[in-house]
Amino acid sequence: MESAWNLLAGLGLFMPVALFLLLKQRKSRVDTKKHPPGPPAWPIFGNIFDLGAIPHHTFYKLKEKYGPVIWLKLGYTNTLVIQSAETAAELFKNHDLAFSDRKVPLVLTAHNYNQGSMAMGRYGPNWRMLRRLCTSKLMITKQLDQTAVLRQKCIDDMIKYIEEDVAEAQAQGESGEIKVAHYLFIMTFNLIGNLVLSRDLVNPRSKDGHEFYDAMNNVTKWAGTPNVADFLPFLKWLDLQGIMRNMMQDMGQAMRIVEKFVKERTEEWKSERKKTNDFLDALLVYEGDGKDEPDVISDQNRRTIILVSTMPKCRKCFFAGSETTSTTIEWAMTELLRDPVVMGRATEELQQVVGPRRKWELGSNYTPETIDMNEGAGITARKLKPLKAKPKRVGRTTNDK
């Protein structure tokens, strides 16, 4: 909600400029192009004020009136909204090439981030090279099967962190409630770190881990904040909300940490240590095919590609890996805690796998009926208020891991 007010404040400051441009551009100009149906747009600002606090809810409501294909004008940006499987299939079947490129939000051009991103990069040689690397080095069954041990390690570490933090809180007289998404995020973030760099990226007890975690969290925050400059490009140079300035700072910090990872790996190579055959090794030994791909990956693009691969909300080799995984699990646990009957069934199944005497319960201030189910706006639909729950281990058995 705060970002929405910032957006409105920025627009209000430059209303006179907008009105001047309106009067200048409206002279006898008639748009004769045919577009899909959509709500009427305001001059200059288009449908920006129609989006509301939760835009995807607004899109769903507009579908009832205008159908599954909706045309919106967001400032100077033409936007096509597709809201059904049938129309999406038709789009990709008949118009895939025309829509294969994408508009890059201004904030994701910081440090040339978009050039190393499959999600945001423009279609071309670099994009095809990155896709080939991802599909050949990461998204193959053999490679995924080999990560079973890593996945178990990351889960075990998450359980250990939870138990230690709960025990410390209870020793201080607190209830032991935790923010579930925080630990899920660390688990998935470290799993991706092991796949890409053969190392944990976040250690809750480590200062360096917190610096990287905080920098990446801020990067995703700025990436998901509505930016007036994306809709009204003539305001780009002003950076009214300070989003670009903050992104340059936080993404720069994250890239410096990534560069340290790369230097450590190259030093290990010089000492003739056996290669780990992870994604970083693949980037370091990459050679182009001699056609339209680059011969080698530049240091700048290598840093960006690694950052993309580990970025909480931006993963397309693993786009949306950490953030969407943790967010999905958090919503699933919320639904289970709202329905004791279904939770009971799930608990019975889990007891057969991980042993008895474990579960989860709501804190004393919550009931299944009072859990806040509102969602926030951004790149992912995370809970507006994070789920807080109390993990309980009632004794230990020989079957407990």
From TrEMBL:
- Assigned keywords, A-Z: Membrane, Transmembrane, Transmembrane helix
The record, for Pfam families, names: p450
Q: Which residues cross the membrane?
A: 6-23
Q: Which GO terms describe its molecular function?
A: heme binding; iron ion binding; monooxygenase activity; oxidoreductase activity, acting on paired donors, with incorporation or reduction of molecular oxygen
Q: Which Gene3D superfamilies match?
A: Cytochrome P450
Assigned protein family: Belongs to the cytochrome P450 family.
The molecule here is called: Cytochrome P450
Phylogenetic classification of the source organism: Eukaryota, Viridiplantae, Streptophyta, Embryophyta, Tracheophyta
